[in-house]
Amino acid sequence: MQLRLYDTLTKEKRPFTPLDPSNVRMYVCGPTVYDFAHIGNARPVIVFDVLFRLLRHIYGADHVTYVRNITDVDDKINDRAARDFPALPLNEAIRKVTELTEKQFHDDVDALGALRPTVEPRATEHIAEMRSIIEKLVQGGFAYVAEDHVLFSPQAMNAENSILPRYGALANRSLDEMIAGARVDVAPYKRDSTDFVLWKPAKPGEPSWPSPSGISVPGRPGWHIECSAMAWKHLGEQFDIHGGGIDLVFPHHENELAQSACAFHSDRMANVWMHNGFLQVESEKMSKSLGNFITIRESLADWPGEVLRLNMLKTHYRSPIDWTAKALEESAKTLDDWYEIAADVKADRPSDAVIDALSDDLNTPQMIAALHGLRNIAASGSDRDRGEFAATLRMLGFLSESAAEWKGRKQQASGVDAKQINDLISNRTAARARKDFKESDRIRDELAAMGVVIKDSKEGTTWEFAR
RNA sequence: GGCCACGUGGCGGAGUGGUUACGCAACGGUCUGCAAAACCGUGCACUCGGGUUCGAUUCCCGACGUGGCCUCCA
């Protein structure tokens, strides 16, 4: 089935045609590394990992380039560095914060079953590219220097009657609306309220670099220019897919698009703009003030990463998702079942039904329905059926452990001694053999109190942990 | 205030102009000393009001409700 993707810019689902099938290129906005990533940050990581895997399946693993940046220059990083490492010079403190946070982020997303992107560029290593784009924008008349800042002018962009896209097209709003809706104080050096910063002077002690466009004092980049620079360096002037959270549509992606299109005199930056919906926790917006702020790290203490992964995919990526304990329990139960059936099976080839579901704009709920179908066939079918089920799950980033490892996690988490359980079960079996059902039921209750569920079958008694 | 998205059965959640989503829970059955597990089966739906249509949960208009963006945010 032909891959179809929904494009935020044109607001339609349409067939995906790569610019170059031998090198399909995708850029996704990554983390700003100043603290543990939260469960909301996990959504784009998982969603675009699934897309990455699908593209690799369709075009070949060596023919997809996935770039996810790391933003390591930001006020929040500076604040954190000053707070956590007050004794160090700021630059050193910043490096400590970004290195530590980057490691945390990698550990977390690895646990979620996400493949590492092809390239993970850091903003601070692309200052030259940023300066180069800024110079182009100033020379082209789209940006100007004012009080040691460089500002981009959306008005100038829209005044030019050429192939350039209209500023505001991605967020679907006009410049007039933005001017009318401006609610922040406009900096005095801006010509228009809609102008945004490409480069600004650094405060003393902050990380800084030589400025572009003849500005004599050192400075630092604005937020949006980073992504334009990193995408250009690693994917070229135009590429196939640009992704991120829906909250990035405006202003971040609108501005990125404007910068790149104007700098390269291009009608587009990416062919498809994809945005994942927001995540709520137990029907409430996640926020520090509500106290329902959940980090990936905290979630991983309660659930295997694959449970979080499956849970995330139960909802279509563009819809809002309500993150609840109930849903997680359900996901855990589903994975227990899948592990039992397929974890120790030799993988065959992935199922077309699942590829087809994903090819329809990443319809992961449909994909899961297809997985349930494969599961039922595998449970009573041939080794080949189980091989197909296993291969499909592995392609999607599941079944990274053996069935024993998976089961062992729960035992470990419960702190219960396996030998003690087996002894109790032996005693119960003996009691049942002499028809002492009062005693056998007592033992069963005792095990239940430990969170152990008994399963009797013709072959004997097995047990597992209840959730 | 402006812009946008969404409103499906007890819960989660796809999809479709006329025909089964899927999963969890529930209920019935098989099995069992009784249960659990497993397996088989069953029921339950498309916010409201108009319109278009032979026919709308699906298209259009309106109302109500929920969420998002407009400011750092995945």
Q: What is the CATH homology-level superfamily of the largest domain?
A: HUPs
Tally of discrete structural domains:
3
- What Rg, in angstroms, do the CA atoms define? 27 Å
- What integer is the average pLDDT? 91
Which structural class best describes the helix and strand composition? alpha/beta
- Number of helical runs? 17
Q: Can you give a write-up of this model?
A:
The chain is of the alpha/beta class. It has 3 domains: 4-276, HUPs (Rossmann fold); 280-406, Isoleucyl-tRNA Synthetase, Domain 1, CATH 1.10.730.10; 416-465. It has 17 helices and 15 strands. The chain has helices spanning 39-59, 75-84, 90-111, 127-139, 154-159, 175-181, 223-235, 249-264, 296-302, 305-313, 325-342, 352-359, 364-380, 383-395, 403-414, 418-433, 437-449, and strands at residues 4-7, 12-15, 24-28, 64-68, 143-146, 149-152, 196-201, 219-221, 239-245, 270-276, 279-281, 284-285, 321-323, 452-457, 460-465. A 4-stranded parallel sheet has the order 4-3-9-10, with helices on both faces. Strands 5-6-7-8 form a 4-stranded antiparallel sheet. A hairpin with a 4-residue loop joins strand 1 and strand 2. Helix 4 (127-139) packs across helix 7 (223-235), helix 4 crosses helix 8 (249-264) and helix 12 (352-359) runs antiparallel to helix 13 (364-380). The radius of gyration is 27 Å and the shape is elongated. It binds one RNA strand of 74 nucleotides through helix 1, helix 6, helix 8, helix 11 and helix 13.
Quick structural overview:
With 467 residues, this protein is an alpha/beta fold. It contains 17 helices and 15 strands. It folds into three domains: 4-276, HUPs (Rossmann fold, 3-Layer(aba) Sandwich), CATH 3.40.50; 280-406, Isoleucyl-tRNA Synthetase, Domain 1 (Orthogonal Bundle), CATH 1.10.730; 416-465.
